[in-house]
Amino acid sequence: MKRFAGLFLMLLLLAPAWPAQAQMSTMTGAGGRSKAAILGVSFLPKDSSNGVNVSAGPQSALQWERTQAWTAIGYVKIAAAPAAAGAEIIFTTCNQGQTAENDGVSQNYRGYELWVNDTGKLQVRIISTYATNYIGVTGSTVVTDGAQHLVAATYDGSSTVGGVKLYVDGNLETNTTEANTLSATIINNQAFWVGNQKGWPYTLGGQLKSFSLHNVVRNQAWVQAYTTAGASRDANTVLAYEFGEGSGRTVADVSGSGFNGFVGGATWLNSNVAGTSPYWIQGKFSADPGLSASASLAVTLSTAVTSGNMVVGAVTLAASPNTPTLTIADDKSNSYTVIGYDRTLAGTLTAYYYRANITNAPTTITATLSSGTGTYWRVIAEEFANVTTSSPLDANNIHYNSAANGTDAATSNSFTPTVNYDLIYSAATNFSGTTMTAGTGFTPLLSSKTTANEPIWTQYLIQPAAGAISGTFTTGGSTQTVVSGMALKAK
């Protein structure tokens, strides 16, 4: 079959009677309109293994009928249009093999999708039977110019081309009709794919960021105000991929719907554009010496920290005595600030530290006790870019001592960010539990356990607006959970 010309952007069809949910995702806007971290994924070089298969959640919930309204939105960066009759897929359910191997009935590429066609323009297809019973709409702006573009598509459930709108960088497209004959069901039993069309050589030959799906028609003002999937989430957000994991084969659905994806092939991105929030570069845990007592412990990052960037982190240990002074240093003589301590009733200590405007490219960060020794040490060091070099923390948004020193905290602890567009960095430990769950709306960064099986996590969130976004960590097990947070200011 000739490819439906174009890259199916993220038109995510909304299922009828989809239950309301509160969701989130993250990504920065085109044209410098927004402040948000540009994290994402690149499906280059093109390969049939690339793409994200929605591997969790009730698959039938994404098999939407033609009467369902929806909106799909996200950021793409594509250097060149595909070859003739080719496509750069953003998402699709119109996969090859919709025949007897599935339900005994040929489904004629039934489903819905968004992609970029061989003219470099957005294209949407909503199909019952390809070539005879479907909607096909093409946009007017070439998006395959190597620049990042915010792309969006909406559909009102009318089964007509007049119900489809396309947007590029917030501007309404002039549509061209390919077909307007849809009159029958589009439901199939195919999986939902992002960046790939199963069984065809149509993958997304470019970058994808902050991809989200909504079960209502969003208007142009909403599209123009879009910053990140997380910041723009509400009860009508059904699926949201931040692509902030940075590694691994799983992308989390941060909408709350549970549609996590399996990443078949991709390169994780941690890139940035002028005017955005801080963003994560790398991070690492030290080795765990267990019960072996020492006065210091070091962590060595995978690569040297770039001059001008910021290092933040946490140190946990069972200290003796349990009220020590802790200092942080690195192998290139940068000085660090320890901003606070948490101590549990049992005397376990957690400290948080930072250094902005790093110089001389250090790789090793060392935590040292002024007196005494510690066991079950863990030192965390993480590098962030695009942080202001002067007064990098918002003073009104530094949260530590989530539990009173010398007391046992609850199994769930949280703080509430209040400053627009900061990157909220959070660390949490539990000294008598075995599991931990990151805060709602937060993207996990690092996680580990001590040899005593005590979990330690870090996470981040781009604060979209002043208000209550809880950075709660919840643990399995008993008490002694402590949570910290600090707000990194953008340049």
Question: How is this structure best described in words?
Answer:
It contains one helix and 33 strands. The chain starts with 5 loop residues before the first strand and ends with a strand. The model is unreliable at 1-39, 97-105, 271-275 and 401-409 (pLDDT under 50). Strands 1, 3, 5, 6, 7, 8, 12, 13, 16 and 17 form a ten-stranded antiparallel β-sheet that branches. The chain has 491 residues and is an all-beta fold.
Got a strand count?
33
How far is the first residue's CA from the last residue's CA?
50 Å
Whole-number radius of gyration? 24 Å
The number of helical runs is 1
Largest sheet: 10 strands, antiparallel
Secondary-structure class = mainly beta
The chain-level mean pLDDT equals 74
Extract low-pLDDT stretches. Answer: 1-39, 97-105, 271-275, 401-409
Q: Look at the structure and give the CATH class of the largest domain.
A: Mainly Beta
Task: Tally the structural domains.
Answer: 2
Mind telling me which CATH architecture of the largest domain this is?
Answer: Sandwich
Task: Tell me the fraction of residues in β-strands, as a range.
Answer: 35-45%
Tell me the overall shape: elongated
List keywords for this structure.
491 residues, mainly beta, Jelly Rolls, 2 domains, 10-stranded antiparallel β-sheet, 8-stranded antiparallel β-sheet, 33 strands, 1% helix, elongated, disordered N terminus
Topology:
Layout: E1 6-8, E2 38-42, E3 51-54, E4 70-78, E5 88-92, E6 111-116, E7 122-129, E8 133-138, E9 148-155, E10 164-168, E11 171-172, E12 176-180, E13 193-194, E14 206-214, H1 220-224, E15 237-241, E16 250-251, E17 261-265, E18 267-271, E19 279-285, E20 296-300, E21 310-320, E22 326-330, E23 337-343, E24 348-355, E25 364-369, E26 373-385, E27 412-413, E28 423-430, E29 433-437, E30 443-449, E31 455-462, E32 473-477, E33 481-488
Antiparallel strand pairs: 1-6, 2-14, 2-18, 3-13, 3-17, 4-9, 4-14, 5-6, 5-13, 6-7, 7-8, 8-12, 9-10, 10-11, 14-15, 16-17, 19-26, 20-25, 21-24, 21-26, 22-25, 23-24, 27-32, 28-31, 28-33, 29-32, 30-31
